[in-house]
Amino acid sequence: MQSHLTDRNLALDLVRVTEAAALTSHRFYGLGDNEAVDAAAVEAMRTAFQGLHIKGTVVVGEGEKDHAPMLYIGEQVGFGDGPELDVAVDPVDGTSVVSRGKHNALAAAGLALKGHMFCPGPSYYCQKIVVSKDAANVIDLDAPVKDNLRNVAKALGKNVGELRVFVLDKPRHEQLITDIRTCGARALMHSEGDIAGSLMVIDPFYDMDLVMGIGGTPEAVVSACAIKGSGAQILTRLAPQSEEEKKRIIDAGIDLDQIRTVDDLVSTDECYFAATGVTDGEILDGVTYSKDLAITSSITTRGRTGTRRFIKTWHNLGKLAKMSNIQYR
Q1: pTM for the full model?
Q2: Section 151-168 average pLDDT
Q3: Distance of CA 91 to the CA centre of its chain
Q4: Distance of alpha carbon 54 from alpha carbon 110, whole angstroms
């Protein structure tokens, strides 16, 4: 097998895909239409992928072929003349955030060498913990919350009371939030944004110490693409939220009880990640406009080198409209 796919950083190509999704979905900011937000991002992302010189297969997408018109699991994307890759997409992580005019929504995608990305299939939810490299070896999904917090604090050289924990603001996390705060740590609530939470944890200039709780399984795989190469860790275990979801996972032959690490979710360093802010957030600015320009803020990562780049881009919407079938405004 090839030791390296290419010396080219494909994340710098991938960012054009997430920029397209962010620009188009932002047209529906604050309009209260979740479906329009998602549809615009999916269509733009799919079209933008056609310009990438890869042979991509969607492993983490918008659904199975019978339930999603575009970017379904198994769909082929890319120009078809480049390296064979697994593809993970989250056209908008925080669809309702965009439609309701709130913060921290982003468009994200990941790439990995073919055959090295976990396909969650019918699994929508998983239990997860995400920490930076300094605490990568001290977390345990089966340990009590207080033990994980104590061990992470020690690894980071902090007191438990200094820890900041990213938690999705969902009814299922009522006990988790109580446990975190009983230990003296801070549970910082976010309505959506699994991927944004992981980016906060690995950012050395942002004070977020860990992600805890039950979130999206697809988002966990995309997050693994983002943190791969940084030394950070994500532990996950599938956590179906209905008997129907549980049955479909079992029928698909996926182990419900296995604890999957970052290396299980993405088992190669030949991986790439890009994300672009749709609305303003802690890590990325949202789409803004100045006359005939649109301005986006993005991050890219590369697993093999561990490099992270923040990219600010000025888009000439008039020229883009002439060059692309994507509706940017």
Answers
A1: 0.94
A2: 98
A3: 9
A4: 13
Q: Which tokens in the block code for residue 298?
A: 């993005």
As a whole number of angstroms, the distance between CA 135 and CA 270 comes to: 24
Tell me the three state secondary structure of residue 30.
coil
**Cα–Cα distance, 303 to 87 (Å, whole number):** 15
Q: CA–CA separation, 97 vs 106, rounded Å?
A: 10
Per 3-state DSSP, the chain is made up of helix, strand and coil in percentages (nearest 5) of 35, 25, 40
Which distant-in-sequence residues (6+ apart) come within 8 Å of 188 by Cβ? 164, 165, 166, 167, 208
Percent of the residues in the chain that have a pLDDT greater than 70, as a whole number: 96
* Cα 144–chain centre separation: 26
Residue type for 232, please?
A: A
Q: Which two tokens stand for residue 183?
A: 């230990």
pLDDT band at residue 74 using 50, 70 and 90 as cut-offs: very high
Residue that has been written with the tokens 């182990």 in this structure: 255
Do residues 178 and 212 make contact, with C-beta atoms less than 8 angstroms apart? no
Per-position DSSP letters for 178-194, written without gaps between them? HHHHHTT-EEEEESS-H
